[in-house]
Amino acid sequence: MRSRHGTEAHRWTDEEKAFLAEFVPGHSYLEVRDELERRFGAEVTVPAVKGVITRLGLRNGLSARVGRGFTPANKGKTWDEMGMSPEAQARSRATCFKPGGEPPNGEAVPIGTERVGTNGYVLVKTKRFSDRPGANKCWRAKHSLVWEEANRQPVPEGSVIAFADRDKRNFAPENLVCLSRGLMATIAKAGLAYHDRESLDAAVLTAKVIQTARDKELRERVCKTCGRTYKPYYKKQRRCRECIDARKG
Q1: pLDDT digits (tens, 9 = 90+) for 212-244
Q2: For a tag on the chain, would you pick the N or C end, based on fewer CB atoms within 10 A?
Q3: Tens of pLDDT along 46-102?
Q4: Residue 14: inside a domain, yes or no?
Q5: Count of domains forming the chain
Q6: Which range marks the domain in which residue 132 is found?
Q7: Is 132 a domain residue?
Q8: Three-state helix/strand/coil letters over the chain
């Protein structure tokens, strides 16, 4: 199947879709494209990346006109330095959100309220308002909270909590398993099925074997373009990152 650009259409794997759900927020389409190539060796165009992000209902939170690293012209300037009149300043002060305040609907949804997110997971409100500007950290996944309470520790960085029986409503502690994102991605990409704790443990062991084999496939090799030794990101990679970037330019 070919895209409207005449190139072979990329078939998106479950692993790649899971990666997009985690990586897209806060990253431009170009950054997502480059990271896809680095992690999976996927040779896709920016329009293809934009298309799959739209189809998956994801948002990067960036302006369509402004990329990351953009510095507004008025950053750090006072209203006087920007030429605002006293009347305009007064109107602006009257509507400014005060530091440490909270939105009008902060009390409308009390802490402990549960709702179902777009991905089907149950979310719990844990804060009245976010303590990080520009980030919605008021809600957390219920299964992560249950796992943390049962194990008396936060979910380790780079890990996720999986439902052993794949039922997103079964919050029994024994049904919740902490796995690295890498292992979960390998299980998804390899299509390893599981339906309970025993079959999930078997899938994890198989995924670890696959990862070990993949690591050996990614041993250092010689770049066919420049002759330098490099460590590849994917098994079919034949050129070092510098030569790949040079071809893009």
Answers
A1: 988 888 888 999 889 999 888 777 888 888 888
A2: C
A3: 889 999 999 988 888 775 544 455 566 666 777 777 777 788 777 777 666 555 555
A4: yes
A5: 2
A6: 114-217
A7: yes
A8: CECCCCCECCCCCHHHHHHHHHHCCCCCHHHHHHHHHHHHCCCCCHHHHHHHHHHCCCCCCCCCCCCCCCCCCCCCCCCCCCCCCHHHHHHHHHHCCCCCCCCCCCCCCCCCCEEECCCCCEEEECCCCCCCCCCCCCEEEHHHHHHHHHHCCCCCCCEEEEECCCCCCCCCHHHEEEEEHHHHHHHHHHCCCCCCHHHHHHHHHHHHHHHHHHHHHCCCEECCCCCCEECCCCCCCCCCHHHHHHHHC
